[in-house]
Design brief:
Length: 324
């Protein structure tokens, strides 16, 4: 038995984050005999700003990095060796000294509609309340169903379901990936197809970061990389990077394989109040990560041009055209 762990795995402390960290731990142990020994792998829980502040929207407390900053700091300080992240929480530019070593096989990227009384958004009466902490979800709802009301709905999966059952809202949304990983798919009233609710960039994908100079650890972690998932995520994150997205920017994107080397990318930006959605789509031959990144950048560049001088309004930076 090892007295000192060979790898310390950093994660947030929510039940879903822990489930993802345990899945990564088990995959590493299965891939490498040295890591399968008792005590070789240790999970370290780190509380992040996003977990600590629950009474305000994410857009009001610092934008991207709210669920990764403290974990990054611990990694760079050597307190942990690797970090397991939901990729939709990871900024497109990593902290200096860190590298994204792998993307594990992606789960269902769709959102789920959840209600104890209604079967769909179309069934909700005028003035019905939707609980959501996501500007992307809220903006798409308001764009399609302006008669509904969206309120801030922070907390982990279990907290949001409790609030729903207490009647704080008539409906909410969660990622199907999280429900599946928690063996709670039955909670979903109905999955939302991308045509109704385009997912967040990299939704359903779990990534592992390492220190850039830790070659041994990078080699261990890369054994878990799913190339098909990694290239999809690269296209979506390039789309996000070109748009300079933050928690104040309702941005959605989904890349899907439609053939062995053929990829479809759908992207969307919308003002926070749901007005003036701008959408685009690409279908390209994609062989490498660079191909995927070029595809995402090209799609986003089209939306930047379409938005023109109004782009800051999509980013929630100014009140343009009558206000946000």
């Amino acid at each position: 038995m090892s007295n000192t762990p060979l790898l310390k795995i950093g994660t947030r402390g929510s039940p879903l984050a822990l489930a993802q960290a345990h899945a990564a731990r088990d995959a590493l142990a299965a891939a490498h005999p040295a890591l399968s020994e008792p005590g070789a792998l240790e999970i370290v829980v780190i509380k992040t700003t996003g977990d600590s502040v629950q009474d305000r929207p994410l857009s009001e407390i610092g934008g991207k990095g709210l669920f990764t900053r403290e974990i990054d700091d611990a990694q760079l300080a050597g307190t942990i060796d690797i970090a397991v992240h939901s990729m939709k929480d990871v900024p497109t530019v990593l902290e200096d000294g860190l590298t994204l070593a792998c993307i594990m096989p992606r789960e269902d990227p769709r959102d789920a509609f959840i209600s104890t009384r209604y079967k769909s958004f179309a069934d909700l009466p005028e003035g019905a309340v939707i609980g959501s902490a996501s500007l992307r979800r809220g903006a798409q709802i308001l764009g399609r169903y302006p008669h509904l009301k969206v309120i801030n709905f922070r907390g982990n999966l279990q907290t949001r379901l409790r609030k729903l059952n207490e009647g704080v809202a008539d409906a909410t949304m969660l990622a199907m990936a999280g429900l599946n990983r928690m063996d709670m798919a039955h909670v979903a009233t109905a999955p939302l197809e991308p045509e109704e609710m385009l997912p967040a960039v990299a939704q359903g994908a779990v990534g592992i970061t390492c220190r850039a100079d830790d070659i041994r650890t990078i080699d261990w972690v890369r054994a878990l990389d799913c190339r098909a998932s990694s290239i999809r995520v690269a296209a979506e994150r390039a789309f996000l990077a070109r748009l300079d997205g933050s928690c104040r920017t309702p941005i959605a994107a989904l890349a899907e394989w439609i053939g062995s080397d053929r990829m479809r990318l759908r992207g969307l930006i919308v003002r926070p109040d749901g007005r003036d959605p701008l959408a685009t789509e690409r279908t390209w031959d994609v062989v490498t990560t660079a191909d995927a990144e070029a595809m995402g950048d090209d799609a986003a560049s089209e939306l930047v041009e379409k938005a023109g001088d109004a782009l800051p309004a999509y980013r929630g930076e100014v009140a343009a055209g009558g206000g946000l």
